[in-house]
Amino acid sequence: MPEKFIVNPDGVQRASVPLVALAERLSNAFKAAGARLAADGSRAWGNDKPGQRFASGYVPTAEDIIKAGGGVGEVLATSAENLRAMAKVLTDANEAAKTTTGRLNGQFGGGQSRGGGGGGRGGRA
User: d(Cα 69, Cα 52) in Å, to the nearest integer?
Assistant: First the structure.
């Protein structure tokens, strides 16, 4: 017997909300870090030989981290959009199943057409 798969579209929709907030926070933090790194007065390591040696390792690594961090924010924002889209698809599929079940019940003498179960919120998808 196949396993049951239960989906709560409202829960899927709600799961996107914290992802949006986290994506914004991360994006803002990495933008601020990038701006700080690029700012003229932020070269705390100085311009002498040891400072230049430090900067030669630090700056490219910091830039890579900032770029990757911005990418994480984008991935989280895209994931939130995908969750919202998934919730809509699940809700639409459920409504279509209810409509189809109702029509079939009406055609085959199932009594009053109430739309059938169709999965319902939190039902089988």
Answer: 25
